[in-house]
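Help wanted!
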Amino acid sequence: MLKIVPLFLYYFKNYYRSRAFYMMLAIDLLVSSLLVYFSFTYLSSIDKYLSRIVANPPPELIRRVFDYVWNFALEYLPVLSAVFFGSPAISSEIENRTAYQIFPLPVGRFQLFAGKFLAAYVVSVLISGIFLLFQWITFLFVFHILQPDLFYLSILLLLVFIFSILSVTFMSSAIFNKNLNAYITVLVIYFLIFPSASYVINIFYGYTPYYLLTVAAAILQQVYFNFSVFSFSGGFSINPAPVQLILRSLWVMILYGVISFTTALILFERKEAI
Amino acid sequence: MRSLVKPLVVLIAALISSAGFYSLANLNQKTSGTYYVPSGSVMIAHVKSDNISFFTFATNTSVGVIISIPFSHLEKKILQTPSTVNNSTQMRINASVRFVMTYHHYSIFEFNNVSLINILSLFGKNYSYGSSLIKSGIRIYATQLNAEYSMIGTLNAVIDSINAFLDNNHFRNLDHYIDQKASLSLWLNTTAKNTSVQLSLNSTENYTSLRVGSNNIMFLKTLTTNLSEKIPKEKLNILRAFVTNYTVNGHFLYVKFDLGFPQISFLLGYLYDLLTAGGLNVKNSTPVSLLL
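Answered by r_m:
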């Protein structure tokens, strides 16, 4: 197990020196800056918008909607991070033929996989952490109070979601031998197939397909304001998502994570440096 | 050692996955309004009206109505309906709403210049079973419970409802007492002068069935006598005219009335007389006084 630590450090250095990291950092800073700007410029618009739903919206509700808007970006940043850091994790070793040097090393495949996964996870958390820091500071400046407990709940859910989506990208990377295929597969499934399926099922079957990862990830927003574009058939509530919905989404994310992680590991164990 | 890692990871994954699938299969999303009815309720009524259903409940300290519409719709209906809707009482003039407090992230609002009965009357039925709630002194609070349900009532009722859901301390086996398919279903549990009475009433469009259970056999006998032979009051005579069938079985009296949901307020008024004539002083019993 201790062999994982040097491997993790090695891959972590690789990740944060990579172009992918700087690209993600640039996206992160751009999105955060835009949201900071919007937060100060359009804060009064939240009040106006909420007035259409409830007369005299309470300050607590305005604050929750503020976080809800920020978490829209937080819902997608980990997906991009996971695709950039996870999708080429295994396939690149085959595509760049580095597997010839790595696979014969006296290091177990599990250690290699775990070291790489952990490094990608920490880098993804770092990217999201920078965004969260911006959110926390902006909230303090705008409302002059600290973030509520829901903010910390959303961080916990975010950590599980990063594990989940990263596992999916690692699985995709273990299936394909070309980086491009691994990238495209995850992006198409997450941004096209899952949302489309959600809309179709909501419209034609009248229920929300909670088992889709895209739908489950919306809990990052729903912890503040129980509305999701993927679950419109059930209406919406101005209250935070109830604990049952949080648990359900949590389990869906854990299941995606655990099953994908294990599948990726098994595939990686059987991978040959062709 | 290395060979053990893979089976161990697969085993842990299998265990977590099994637990996950089991939890997902058994995780109740609790979207029904029944999860917001407090366990300490002594009166529960369920009314179906078009596409809307109401759960009215009363504990010893609170009265609330859970309505199957989102809060924004409820609020809009109350604030935007012209005040001329109810000219007789003129209670709805300048109805307004203001935010009062947040309780466990639930925003609680207060409606001013409007009574509970006025609000219920907006939905097209005569809810005279809650007529005593029109007392102008009662402050009306409201909150959104979930995507489908809102509630209005006293502040205690709103808080009791939220607690019932959050603490999983809602009224158990509600379906045992309340028939949600009936137009009106009512359950009442009250005690006066050492006589406890449980009353279940289900009303459809055409007929109403009533079950009265009591620990006091004499009380039941008096009720039965009033229904069958000695009718002390003219009102009870009218009531008897609608009795199509009745049986007594141990501690329970079963009565069927040839009166449906449209005449329910009429029937409830006579039931009040019947209970009083039976020797149960229900005037000071909170749930009964709220009901009649």
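OP: Thanks! One thing I noticed: The radius of gyration of chain A is 20 Å.
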